[in-house]
Amino acid sequence: MKKNSFTDDPKIQKNRWWIMFAVSLFTFMSVLDGSIVNIALPVMSKDMKIPMNQSEWVVSIYLIVICALLLLFGKLGDNFGKIKIFKLGAILFTIGSLLCGINLGLIPLLIARAIQAIGAAMTMSTNNGIITEIFPFNERGRALGTIGSFVALGAIAGPGLGGIILAHLDWTYIFWINIPIGIIGIIIGQFILPKDISVANEKIDHLGSTMFAIFMLSLFIGVFLGQEIGFGKPSILILFAIAVISIITFIYIETHVDNPILSLSLFKNLGFSINIFCALLIFITGFFFNVVSPFYLENARGMAANYAGYALMIMPLIQGIVSPIIGGWSDKIGRHLLTFVGLIMISISQIGYMITTLDTPLWLFMFFIGLVGLGNGVFMAPNNTLIMSAVETKDLGVAGSINALARELGMVIGISLATTVLFASMSHTAGYKVTTYVPAHPEYFISGMHTTFLVSMIICLIATVVSGFNFFYHKK
C-alpha cells in the first residue's frame, strides 16, 4: 500500500477543509451539468429548431463521454498524480463550459459538451482518492460522506436551478454560470492543493480502457440513434454487436492482466456489490424523472421555466435538509434500515408519478417530488457510507471510482431507457413514429409518461426488494 504523508503535514491538515471545498465545488458542478440541461431542452429544441430526441444528445453525450473515460482517468491519476489530473480537469471543464454557451448550433455544442465531459471525468475520477489521501483515518468517513452529499445534490438539483436561470437569462447561461465558479475553484485549488507525493508508475491497461470506451460509445450511440431511425437498421445492429464483443473482450482482459483498469474482484464483496447495485438503480430511476418532468411541466402543463424550476427545487431542498440529519442518525438507527426506508419512499413517489394526468393538482405532483427528496435524503448518505465502508482502506480509491461510474452509468442508462420507452409508447398511442412532444396531442405524451414511470417504478421496486433482503439479513 502506498504511504500517505499528507496526513503528517501540518500545513495541509490546516487547509484540509478548504481542499474539501475546492474538490466538492467541482464535484457538484460536474454532476450538476449532467442534469441541469434537462429543464432547458424544450427551450433549446425550439431555439435550435431540432426535435426533442436530438436535443437529448446534449445531455447524453456528456454522460457517455464521462462513463467512457472515468476508469482511464482514475488509473492515470494513480500513475501521474491525482491532484495533477484533477487540476487539469478543472481547467478543461471550465473551458468546455465557456464553449457550450456560444450558440453555433447542435454539432458545435455537442463538441463543447464532450470537452466539458473530459474535464468532468478527470475531476470525478480523482476526487475520492484526493480526499482519502488528505484526510486522516478518523475523519475519512465524514469527508467521503460530504463528497457523497454534493454528488447527490448535484444529480437532482439541476432541473430546479436550471429553471430559475432560464426565468431570467438565456439558456446559454446554464453553461456560463460554471465559469466564475470554476475560476474561483481553480484559484483556490492552485493555492491550497498540494503537489502529488506518490505515484504508482504501474503499467496502464490501455487495451482494457479502450474496450470499455468502445463498449460505452457503441452501446449508447446505438440506443439513441435507434430511437430516431429504428432499432432494426443494419447500422444499429452493428453498433450493438460491437458493444457485445467489446464488453466480452473487456471482461476477459480485466481477469487476465496484472493491473486491471477495473478491479472486478471487489464485486466478490457482497455488501459492496448490493449497495452499488441499489445506487445504480436509483440513479436510473432519478433520470427517468429528469427526462420526463420538464416536458410535463413546461409543455403539457404550460408552466414557465422558472415556475417549473421552483417546483423541481423542492426535491434538492428537502434532500439538503434531510441528508445531514440522517447522516448523524445513521449510526444509531442503522444504515441498512435507513436505505430500505428511503427506497420505500422513492417507490411510493413513482406510483404517484405513474397516475399523474393533466388534471392532477400541481400541489399533489409537488408532494410526490418532495417525497423523492425525502427518500433520497434518507437513502443516499447511508448507502454511500455502506459502499465505502465495505472495502479495505487500500481499496477506497478504487471503490470511489466504481461508485462514480455506477452513478454516471445510472444517469445515462436512465436517459436512454426513459427516452426509448417514452417515444415507443407515444408512437404506439399515436399510431405513427413520434420522437418529440406533439402540442396538438398532449394525450400522446401523457400516455408515454405513464408507461415510462411504470418502468421506473419497477426498477425502483427491484432496488427496494434487494435492499429489504439486505436489511433483514443483517438484522439476524
In CATH terms, the superfamily of the largest domain is MFS general substrate transporter like domains
Count of distinct strands: 0
Our measurement of the CA-to-CA distance between the termini, rounded to an integer number of angstroms, reads 35 Å
Strand content bin? under 5%
Order of helices and strands: HHHHHHHHHHHHHHHHHH
Question: Largest beta sheet, briefly?
Answer: none
Shape: globular
Radius of gyration: 21 Å
Write down the oligomeric state.
single chain
In CATH, the architecture of the largest domain is: Up-down Bundle
**Uncertain regions spanning at least 5 consecutive residues:** none
**CATH class type of the largest domain:** Mainly Alpha
Assign the CATH topology of the largest domain. Answer: Growth Hormone, Chain: A
Q: How many structural domains does the protein architecture include?
A: 2
> Overall mean pLDDT score?
83
Number of helices: 18
Q: Helix fraction?
A: over 70%
Secondary-structure-based class equals: mainly alpha
